[in-house]
Amino acid sequence: MALTRFERFLGRLLRAVVWMLFAAFKLFAPQQRHGVSRLPPITNPLLLLSAMQLARKIRRKEVTSVEVVQAYIDRIQEVNPLINAMVKDRFSAALQEAAQVDKLIEEETGGEEVLEDRLPLLGVPITVKEAFALQGMPNSTGLLTRRDLISGVDASSVALLKRAGAIPLGVTNCSELCMWLESHNHLYGITNNPYDFERIAGGSSGGEGSILGAGASMIGVGSDIGGSIRIPCFFNGIFGHKPSTGIVSNDGQYPPASGLQMGFLCTGPMCRYAEDLIPMLSIMGGPNANKLSLSAEVDLKKLRFFSVPHNGGSHLVSPVDAQLLQAQKMVVRRLEADLGVKVQELFIPQLKYSFQIWGTMMASPGKDGKPPTTFAELMSEGGKKIWPVWELFKWLLGFSSHTIAAIGLALVELFQSSHPSPFVLQQKESLQQELEELLGTDGVLLYPSHPQISPKHHHPIFTPFNFCYTGIFNILGLPVTQCPLGLSEEGLPLGVQIVTGKLQDRLSLATALYLEKAIGGWREPGKTTAKP
Ligand SMILES: CCCCCCCC/C=C\CCCCCCCC(N)=O
């Protein structure tokens, strides 16, 4: 049973309405104006080292932690007024902690190896998405009603990074309730893309994406239930990893997942240099990281590679940008030339239903039979669930404390059927089986990160389903590494998702490391406009 004619008609109607709204928006939307159009260049060479290189230098006393932390504070102070990525800092506490680190290193008698083993990130600064609890910092997730909430403890993943010696510099912006492609809310405002301030930094971990892309942080913590690590990593030209389900604890982030969503939400690392992904994942995963055999050597020549260029033409989703298709082809050529492997191009028809699969599974009750918390409940004010239609009315008059994206999601929820379509469930099952068989323990799949290069601010309102290029892998529980692939003709980041079988994270991580060397990885914004 395929989609009914009525469902297809509804899809087309929706597209027509969206394009009419988009045309009206283009005509009347106010343009953002910035005095400065480019990010200032990076002048301090410390900002161009990976976390692993810096940690080594700090341990060897080649540089002090205070110098490194101060370098990052200076860079944040220089760029944050332009990108609005960090929403609350803890600079003086971070400098004090850095001074303690330097003292500890001075007094350590066991040698560098002891420190490396016990405290692999000793003295290295880090940034954290505001949706995670970080002691002493706000944890509003962009909700005005949570504006005074200060975390008393750390989220599990943040605690593990701190225990490894990392020094948090502050928390970064996200979309309202972490459920949108753009990082915008009425508490902190909108985050800009460091490559073009008129474009989005992505969401929901967009503050992390932007601050990392701007060279004002080198490692950060993000979360992803539909692409919230991978979309901002893609738009800001950095690396990110959505781990296999169940490896990194999701405790201590808001909102908590409910229903089946607990199995789709993943916490993971975001960083500028690929070599930091594995150490961060090992730390953030705690004992669970052992399931991934991250230290086992990967011989890329022995892997089977596949490339899927698009989702087969869903009418809800934009076609994949020609420059992204070209970049993915270039990766295929490099893999074939450098490694002598044959990359097989595939079309997987079930991917066309990615959004329907994601939507159905996200709305499903958990194993305990309880339905997930509704978006309107999460948006509640003074303990009362909001009324989406009333909220829309308020928004039109400029009185709502919520973004149009959050209101839109609460409205869509009203029309969601409580009876999942058997056709969609069947597509999900067959896709899961096909991909698990295809990838096994040695398969690597290349898939676009998103059909579009970073859009202009607010434009995702007209293309809300595009996120399903990333969201589908949350439902399937597969690990994905987001890898940058140079810049477009307009100087905006290109990229690709690298997908592997469950618990085979080391394969996509090794492929990303290779591609960083082959293609160049993160590029400093405003410096070069280079095609891949
Ligand atoms: C104002 C327009 C709103 C229309 C809403 C249309 C429905 C689209 C459904 C879901 C969009 C969710 C986007 C999720 C982005 C990433 C989420 C994440 N935390 O990983």
The distinct ligands, each listed once, are: (9E)-octadec-9-enamide
Taking the sheet with the most strands, its summary is: 11 strands, mixed
SS-based class: alpha/beta
How helix-rich are the residues, as a percent range?
25-40%
Strand content: 5-15%
Here the CATH topology of the largest domain equals Amidase signature (AS) enzymes
Output the strand order for the largest sheet.
1-3-2-8-10-9-14-15-13-11-12
Number of strand segments: 15
pLDDT < 50 runs, ≥5 residues: none
Shape: globular
What count of structural domains?
2
Q: In whole angstroms, how far apart are the ends?
A: 42 Å
Characterization of this structure:
The protein is 38% helix and 13% strand. Helix 10 links the parallel strand 11 and strand 12. The chain is globular and about 70 Å long. Helix 6 (156-163) packs across helix 9. The longest helix is centred in the first third of the chain and has 24 residues, at 5-28. The protein folds into 2 domains: 42-364 and 420-519, Amidase signature (AS) domain (Amidase signature (AS) enzymes, Alpha-Beta Complex), CATH 3.90.1300.10; 365-419, no CATH class. It is of the alpha/beta class. Strands 1-3-2-8-10-9-14-15-13-11-12 form an 11-stranded mixed beta sheet, with helices on both faces. (9E)-octadec-9-enamide (ELD) binds at residues 178-181, 204, 224-228, 404-405, 408-409, 412, 461, 464-465, 467. This is Fatty-acid amide hydrolase 2-A. Residues 67-507 form the Amidase domain. The active site is at residues 129, 204, 228. InterPro entries: Amidase_CS (IPR020556), Amidase_dom (IPR023631), AS_sf (IPR036928), FAAH2 (IPR052739). Belongs to the amidase family.
